[in-house]
Description:
The structure is a homodimer.
Chain A: H1 8-31, H2 38-45, H3 49-55, H4 59-64, H5 70-80, H6 87-102, H7 106-118, H8 120-143, H9 152-175, H10 182-194
Helix pairs in contact in A: 1-2, 2-3, 5-6, 5-8, 6-9, 6-10, 7-8, 7-9, 8-9, 9-10
The first copy, chain A, binds a DNA duplex through residues 8-9, 12-13, 37-39, 47-51, 53-54, 57-59.
Amino acid sequence: MSAAPVGTREIGRHAVRAELARVAFNRFCLTGFNQVTFADLAEAAGVSRSTFLRYFGTKEDVVLFVFDPVGDVIADALDAERADEDDWSRLRGALESAATFLVRDVQHLATILDLVDQTPALCARLREKQTEWRPKIVARLQETASPADGSAVVADVRAAAALECLWIVLGHWSASGGREDLGDLLDTAFAAFSTPARAQTGAPL
Amino acid sequence: MSAAPVGTREIGRHAVRAELARVAFNRFCLTGFNQVTFADLAEAAGVSRSTFLRYFGTKEDVVLFVFDPVGDVIADALDAERADEDDWSRLRGALESAATFLVRDVQHLATILDLVDQTPALCARLREKQTEWRPKIVARLQETASPADGSAVVADVRAAAALECLWIVLGHWSASGGREDLGDLLDTAFAAFSTPARAQTGAPL
DNA sequence: TTCATGCCTGACACTGAGTATCACGTTATG
DNA sequence: CATAACGTGATACTCAGTGTCAGGCATGAA
């Protein structure tokens, strides 16, 4: 799932990467993402700046690399979903898989999400990753698309909307301190598409 | 709408900014965004690097500043929409306004969009702007939200989904060389929400 | 054990974005 | 005309990110 290491070197590299990220993450939370330099991180981790940069291409990746597998998680989950479901049901299920994958460490995820939306650069980079995932999702949707949904626009819109749901839901979940149920939040989010969305303030029940 | 200049100095500044952007944009299209440095741009425009940087905070803004008013355009259009419409209709209308605003110079917009999605940095920054617009849109939707839509998640999801529609539609429109009708494309995009989205390849008509 | 191969590391140098400061010339205003 | 405000260019600086190179250390073969 997350690029399972094969050789001993790969294992070592993976472990070092995790440790560097751990040390760095503490710094970021303590001092603020923008205030910490690679030199700081390298010193805190006890390696040279060169080495640190060899493990993470950018400062953003030090925080966000944990999200890398999400694209595949969603795509795989779409395959696993019953193909006779409609797009929204399948997407709803796939997002649940993604959420489950991310919520292995509740406290850590909440902290990351806090840091991310305090930091524009992290926000931007995360949305960039999200955009990279979309084509893969669109492809799965189109494999089973009915002729009536012929336009590529439709699959694109649904994939994009679903991904937006994921972040919005995670944002609210994180803001609630992780107490709200992610499944319920996903239901609420997806309901935004299916309900008639009438406007009057004095709407009939 | 776009920060109407009042004093003579403001007018001059605005004009210089436009000229610098024009010269820079040619360079970007010719050589590629990442290959062009501020030093290049300054030389091409006949000003010092300092001066160029005084007009644009970042390289991305040199290209993307034209999108700055879009957030307000959408928000204003939402106000102008009949408040008794449902959210999707209002958003659809507001997006049409945004599209109309952007398509004043067809050729130029298409070129910008091409450059943007060839350049990850521009993509990221544009999505960042988009995220900045969302809260304003959410606020308009919530002003007239029915109690049943109480959750902030719903308005958030709808605003986010609508903004995604805008870029997807513009992307397809640009890919078609500006020949397709933006209104039709918007309809197709919004149909992704309302159609049942059944999956079977041999779906009944 | 010894040697050879290959990877990891640290040191160093470099480009380029973005920030800040200062002195000079120009332009608006009284 | 005087002066204050502003635009400009020059300069110096920090930091992200790239590239190169030589030495250390492991693994594997002789």
